[in-house]
Amino acid sequence: MKIDIVSVFPEYFEVAGLSLLGKAQDKGLVTVKAHNLRDWTHDVHHSVDDTPVGGGAGMVMKPQVWAECLDDLLGLDAAGAEETGDAQATPTERSEDAPVQQARDGRGGRPVLIFPNPSAPLFKQADAAELSQADHLIFGCGRYEGYDARIPDYYRGQGLDVREYSIGDYVLNGGEVAVSVMMEAIARLLPGFMGNPASIEEESYTGAKPLLEYRQYTRPTNWRGMEVPQVLISGDHAKVDRFRWDEALERTSRIRPDLIERLDCSQLDKHDLAK
Ligand code: SAM
């Protein structure tokens, strides 16, 4: 998988060289490259933002600089719209398929463009699983009041797969942290990323019955007078499985009832339904 990230603070992503993501890069499973959006500016101040149309506080990221950058990363011919003054050129005025085909051929695999945005749908484990199948992800980090809304719309209009995701109901200063979160959730699902592939099979939000995980313990079984649940040292695997499943169900009902509501009840047995 190839990951390109566009940011005005590309240094944020130096951490991608650490830990398991760093090892995955060494193994050639994934490449992560952070680009400085300001490299696509033409003015002396390298400005990427302007005041909001309609007024209001703060600054908004300009579409022209983003488009020059994204066209380059996608291997698309520049629309030439800004230079010719034809800034309103719509996708229908251009070949719908040509840019997508170029993007497919140019950089290996159909790219997915992802913009973090607090006012977008929440990024979930299922999104991470789906995106882990992609060959090429391009993340665009917003800053200030965010990016001009036409940027994702433009590339959608070009037939590209464009996503906008929030990582939670709060507002960060920029998209860098959100991209780090999404990138890690996606990359760890790549085959070969985890030393033990079984570690990602039975996790919170994962699998056919996506619940919160049961609680985990390690040795010593008695620590500061606190015992681990005795069933876990019984050696009876069926009982351990039952205990863990019951605990997952109980914790999920209490902490995240919304997940229980979405559960397919046909997958539960009589024992579960009685709870
Ligand atoms: N004016 C925007 C609003 O009220 O929705 C907030 C913009 S925020 C200060 C700047 C950038 O940070 C956003 O464009 C986005 O890229 C990123 N960001 C902030 N919070 C986020 C969140 N919860 N999830 C994903 N991205 C976020």
Backbone structural class: alpha/beta
Structure annotation, total helices: 10
**Strand ordering within the main sheet:** 2-1-6-5-7
Using the coordinates shown, work out and report the CATH topology of the largest domain: Alpha/beta knot
Question: What can be said about the biggest beta sheet?
Answer: 5 strands, parallel
Give the number of domains: 2
Can you tell me the CATH architecture of the largest domain?
3-Layer(aba) Sandwich
What's the short version?
It catalyses: guanosine(37) in tRNA + S-adenosyl-L-methionine = N(1)-methylguanosine(37) in tRNA + S-adenosyl-L-homocysteine + H(+). This protein is α/β, with parallel strands linked by helices.
